[in-house]
Amino acid sequence: MMGSLKTEPALDRPDLLAAPVEAALRDWPGRSGTVVAAIDAGLADTAAFCAEYGVRLDESANCVIVAGKRDGVTRYAACLLLATTRADVNGVVRKHLNVRKLSFAPMDEAVALTGMEYGGITPIGLPPEWPVLVDPRVCEAASVVIGSGVRHSKLQLPGALAAELPRAEVVAGLAR
Prior knowledge:
Blueprint: E1 7-9, H1 19-27, E2 35-38, H2 46-53, E3 61-70, E4 73-82, H3 89-97, E5 102-104, H4 107-114, E6 132-134, H5 136-140, E7 144-147, E8 153-157, E9 168-170
Parallel strand pairs: 4-6, 6-9
Antiparallel strand pairs: 1-2, 2-8, 3-4, 3-5, 7-8
């Protein structure tokens, strides 16, 4: 248990998971190390969540969706980084995706493409063509809290499992 979160095995509580997250967890070997906790949906944003539930910012990882174009094709990726850091979107991420210009995906677009709620988007259950770029500091954390695809819960997993997510690529310099 982290902070005051009351956790249970994630797949025991499908009501606390977005449908694509539940489906992906069923197929992921790391599911046994992943637990879920119900939270107040009004406190899903990182700072409010951490303050209310006693989770440190360096134990919370954010998943941000970025989009860039190359040859008229939009390329998406998820970046997983600790809440104490920011993604190097215009440097490392842009070069990694081989696009000229990269930005955060618009909220309505990210929600529609992921099937998840804004403020709950997680790297588990994303579209299969999207890479999941992981900052090494996430993997070094003993445990991290991430979204569950919905605003009324959070997932917790050992940081090392982040490197084992489907399509995960640990990228040095991803976050500053």
